[in-house]
Amino acid sequence: MSSTYWLTNTRLETGYQIDEGIVTGTNSENFHLLIENKKIAKIIPSSEKIADDLPRTDAKQLLALPSFVEKHCHLDKTLLGDRWRPVTPVRNIFERLDIEKEVLPSLDTATQERAELLLETYVAYGVTHVRTHVDIYPEIGLKNLENVQKALRTFEGKLTYEIVAFPQHGLLRTDSRDLVREALKSGASFVGGVDPATVDGDIEASLKAMVELAVEGNAGIDLHLHDPNHLGIFTIKRLAQLTKEAGLQGKVAISHAFGLGDIPLTQAEEMADLLADAGITIISSIPINRKFPPMGLLRKHGVPVAVGCDNIFDVWSPFGNGDILERVGRLAEISHWVDERSLSQALYYITGGKTTLDQEGRQVWPKIGDEANLVLVEASCSAEAVARRSRRAATIFNGELTSGSLGAY
């Protein structure tokens, strides 16, 4: 594909069909998009004749959606490409950590190889940005980080990425602060953490260590927080306070945050306001075996929210296929978002906050000047794509085709 070309016959959503105040469907039309300098430079109706001789690529009336963001994965943990391995039952997280520490170094396949297989899967499913956690602990040092970075470099030109230095076995419990500090100097951009109460055994010391490392390394924070109920809520409140004191608003995320799903909605609304004030993002993998944060409520209160796949066939879970559209479809199903508007708005959670239409049905994507990052889908509208996990026919990143095929003419 040329760096400057027309993406012709591209189906774009133009507004909701509304009958007596009720959204009954979504309107769409075909357009020609001029791709130039990695951006969408011009948008014209397909009925309008193209007045130049630039190369053309036919989108064949496929629906264009903003490309997807995988906000929570573990490229170093996946067992993709290795033999089937059943998950061993455990009594607590520490037994699981010991199993993982034993299994991963013993595999016949290399970390980089398995990470590349997962990245290839993501791109085929429409992902152009990933945030990956990478295990950092004394026995492994920075080896996982180095191998994941090698894998990510092979995907340059296909996606962008963020790396979380993740002390899975406990930041304090394994005294990994120096390793995390070194990882930040070596390319990681987030300080990770896990269950300051359960794993580290000291909420205050653990959170303060994370914040200090983030400030020192000019980095963000992404905390795994599985602790439930009021233990989890207490931890969130303290992290929010420390975030504001350190001036880290907008740079902190909490993954899982199960405690937000364990409390009454009235209290969840209070927590939502607190999180919005601190600029803390909530990321959920939408588990089916336990309550998770009320994502719609959080979004309504201005909390940045996102969905990630998390486990993709590893020693923690035999499930997961890397399809982030399927995962947000699960969110919609569990949340009872069955109407056209709610389904189409669900794109917000997997596109970095983008939707094709706003709540009122005004077209907000794509606009001239937007980055040419999009996925072409076999669907009539985004609501159908979310509900039916429609097939991705092609992924385009910075104007370049990275997966699938389209017809040039």
Which helices and strands appear, and what pairs or packs with what?
Blueprint (H helix, E strand, L loop, with lengths): L4 E15 L2 E15 L2 E7 L10 E3 L4 E4 L1 E6 L19 H11 L7 H14 L2 E9 L7 H11 L6 E7 L10 H9 L4 E5 L8 H14 L3 E5 L4 H17 L6 E4 L3 H4 L2 H14 L1 E5 L10 H6 L4 E3 L16 H11 L5 H6 L28 E4 L4 H7 L3 E6 L2 E5 L2 E2 L1
Parallel strand pairs: 1-4, 6-7, 7-8, 8-9, 9-10, 10-11, 11-12, 12-13
Antiparallel strand pairs: 1-2, 2-3, 4-17, 5-14, 14-15, 15-16
Helix pairs in contact: 2-3, 5-6, 6-8, 10-12
Explain the overall architecture.
The protein is built from 12 helices and 17 strands. The protein has helices spanning 93-103, 111-124, 143-153, 177-185, 203-216, 229-245, 259-262, 265-278, 295-300, 324-334, 340-345, 382-388; strands at residues 5-19, 22-36, 39-45, 56-58, 63-66, 68-73, 127-135, 160-166, 190-194, 220-224, 252-255, 280-284, 305-307, 374-377, 392-397, 400-404, 407-408. Helix 2 (111-124) packs across helix 3 (143-153). The protein is globular. The mean pLDDT is 96.
Q: What form results from the Cα inertia axes?
A: globular
Tally of strands? 17
Radius of gyration: 22 Å
Residues in helices, as a percent range: 25-40%
Largest sheet: 8 strands, parallel
What is the number of helical segments per DSSP (H or I, 4+ residues)? Answer: 12
Q: Look at the helices and sheets and give the structural class.
A: alpha/beta
Q: How widely separated are the two ends?
A: 11 Å
Q: What order do the strands of the largest sheet run in, or round the barrel if closed?
A: 6-7-8-9-10-11-12-13
Average pLDDT number: 96
Q: Low-confidence parts, pLDDT < 50 over ≥5 residues?
A: none
Which sequence of SSEs, written as H and E, runs from N to C? EEEEEEHHEHEHEHEHEHHEHEHHEHEEE
